[in-house]
Amino acid sequence: MNCKNCNNTLKASQKFCDECGAKIIQNRLKPKVIAQQINEQFISIDNKFLRTFIDLFRQPETVIVGYINGTRKKYIDVLQYFAISLTLAGIQVFLINTFFRDALDFTPEFAKAIENIPEKNINPMAGLNPDFFTKYQGLIYILGVPVSSLATWLVYYIFANKRFNFTEHLVLNLYYSAQIIIITAVFSILFLVTGMNYLIVSTILGLPTFIYLAYVLKHVFKEDFWNTIAKFLIVMAFYVVIYFIIIVIVFIVLLFSGYFKI
């Protein structure tokens, strides 16, 4: 018998491949088998998803540093965890667009302010509406990961030891981003059920996400409170600068492509 994933020769009694670590599947796909896999991965108390979610709050360094150092069986793989978070974000967008359309409207004051901008000027707010953020939310999340990774990598490369390379900072930020996306998706729906505006909900959820990033950095890099705060503030500054540069480049490209009318 050979492994179906790497073609390694296996013994009949093996449950996992000793070459690639894949679980040996001998049963045909049936509803019972699918239900069992779903239960193992997401529903049972002792499942990887719940363990990963809880430990990213309790001891994020165990999940993140453990993955970087090669411990990758206890918790969900970082890319799989991020994919699950994007799926939940997609469900959030679907529910908002289907049941909470009114929550996407700008406040009257903000909408009026946009309307008062003369159309003869370049109006970067033209065409800006909450639909843009919900429609491209997944893409925004994905593009945000390398930006935040670059920010944390630069700060800890310049001002601290060079413990992790850029790819390892990608792992840190993927786990962090996935955790934030999951929390945001779940709480957005809970808040919107109460009739709150989407922009207000996003603002409420914004502050805790930044606090959580500082918490993750402190646990991963094992620094004291004030060193963590100092580096966190520099990370935020780098983050803003990188995004500003990206926005300027995009604006220039759109300007020369004729997207804006002067």
Low-confidence stretches: 106-115, 119-128
Mean pLDDT: 78
Strand content: under 5%
Q: Based on Cα principal axes, name the global outline.
A: globular
Number of domains: 2
Helix-strand string = HHHHHHHHHH
Helix and strand composition category:
mainly alpha
Total of helices:
10
The largest sheet is: none
The level of helicity is 55-70%
Radius of gyration: 22 Å
Question: How many β-strand runs?
Answer: 0
Distance between the termini: 69 Å
Explain briefly what this protein structure is.
This protein has 262 residues and is mostly helical.
How does this model look, in words?
Helix content is 68%, strand content 0%. The chain is mainly alpha-helical. The chain folds into two domains: 1-44, no CATH class; 60-256, no CATH class. Helix 2 crosses helix 3 (60-69) and helix 3 runs antiparallel to helix 8. The longest helix is centred in the C-terminal third of the chain and has 32 residues, at 225-256. The termini are far apart.
Tell me the layout of helices and strands:
Layout: H1 31-43, H2 48-58, H3 60-69, H4 78-99, H5 108-115, H6 130-135, H7 137-159, H8 166-193, H9 198-221, H10 225-256
Helix pairs in contact: 2-3, 3-8, 3-9, 4-8, 7-8, 7-10, 8-9, 9-10
For this entry, give a set of tags.
mainly alpha; 262 residues; 10 helices; single chain; 2 domains; globular; 68% helix
